[in-house]
Amino acid sequence: MGGPQPPTGWRRGLAFGGVSLLLGVTQGLGFNLVNNNLPWIQGSLGAYPNEAAWLSTAYTATNATIGLLAIKFRFQYGLRLFGDIGLGLFIVVAVAHLFTDDLRSAIAVRAASGVAATALSTMALLYMIAAVPEHRRPMGVALGVGWSQLAAPLSRLVSSDLLQVGQWHGLYLLEIGLSLLCLVAVNLVRVPPMPRVKMFQARDFLTFALFAPGVALLCAVLAQGRYVWWFDAPWLGWALAAAIVLIAASALVELHRAQPLLHIRWLSSADMLRLVVIILLFRIVLSEQGVGAFGFLQAMGMNNDQMRGLSWVMFWATLAGMIIVAVTINPARVSTPALISLLLIAAAAYWDSHVTNLTRPAQMYFSQGLIAFASALFLPAVMLAGFGRALRQGQEFIISFAVIFGAGQSLGALAGSAFLGTLMTVREKAYSAQIVERLLLTDPQVAARVRQYAGAYGGTISDPALRQGEGLAVLSQLATREATVLAYADVFRVIAALSLLVFAYLLALRLREDARARRAALLIPVEAA
Questions:
Q1: Which of 396, 453, 86 is nearest to 254 (CA)?
Q2: Under a CB-based contact definition with an 8 Å cutoff, are residues 325 and 380 in contact?
Q3: For residue 420, how many other CB atoms are within 10 A of its CB?
Q4: With contact defined as beta carbons under 8 Å apart, do 283 and 337 qualify?
Q5: What pLDDT, in 10s, does the model give residues 484-497?
């Protein structure tokens, strides 16, 4: 009667937990499969690096903004319908893209994938909460948020085989297959329905029409800045100015509404601003893994096949962190796992700052395992901290927190890539200049090294001048490699210092809250008497 009946008892927990795992891993793979393989995908599409970066921009822009309407849609029309629409849109666009080799259609697929990811992440969280008893809700939140983090190392483990089978088409085929499984799962195993409430108002769409393009332009600036360079492309300045105007206009509209979509006054309170700053800074720090470690290894000539061992270490470390935080997290002390994670990231980044041109994935097992473990600790803590604040204010404040949490995650990741990528480029140019100015052919050691490199071409090039030119080219490549190694070492040191600064800031907030709690405890007996 009326469709499949939900399971009961322990079967309910297993069914809902399994669907949550499927949804979370699918959502994570949707982002990481493409993002971690951009150098290979851009070759298949015949695109330059800055053009391929639009794939990540399109995904982030839609994923960071659609949440503004997604929560209201769920309250008014139900979660399953929203999931069906999001997944259906992605499947249709992705299947159409399989018959083209055009960058524009690929960007459209990534935009649709960002919309579907919002539905998947929301459903993964709600299914996991429904899978555990009420007194274990923090565990459900920790696992529901954490499933998608397992996809980062998994994407590197499976992508090589997929690219060999069908180039970039193989990546999309896996996404389509998983999306179809999710579509079947959410229709077979349904969460208990919630009371429908009329939520949408006409001015909601005005706010969205201002906010979404503003965030999309901001994403474009952050993603493209280090490729076209910040001061060489005038359109970056115009896009940033337009983004500020549009976001400010959406905030102005919301401030004058009786029932706003975004509660700007609450979001601009000191408590929430601190939470947003911590989310952004942590996401920037967490870029040590993608931009830092994997970027360094790729610069040293490593590919995904050679980093399989490192990916497995990250996978098991992430899973261990998820289990530990799910079992131990205390909603009253959510800052504890966050503080531990920041210390672990600082230690791992300092460890990585000692890289050399001989560093290989095996030398990064320990540091990257620490960072994977730390990331699994942090996100559930932040989710519980913000979600608790939103619930104390009222159900309608959940929308505001969900938007800020999602946008903070997405924009923080882009800002981290932009900041660390820019820093690496600047430091590499500086080190290259320092190294090259010391490489003089009048130096006997430099001249001997050039002759040594030129000798390798003795069997193929008879002209001595051409052989010397080849020797100089090899020496130039080695100088660039050494400059790159030194630049990445600086990046790791900056991440370690930034992690310690965020740790000190969060610890100061924790100590201040503890002091206030102790003072309140002393005052209560006096007032009661």
A1: 396
A2: yes
A3: 25
A4: no
A5: 888 888 888 988 89
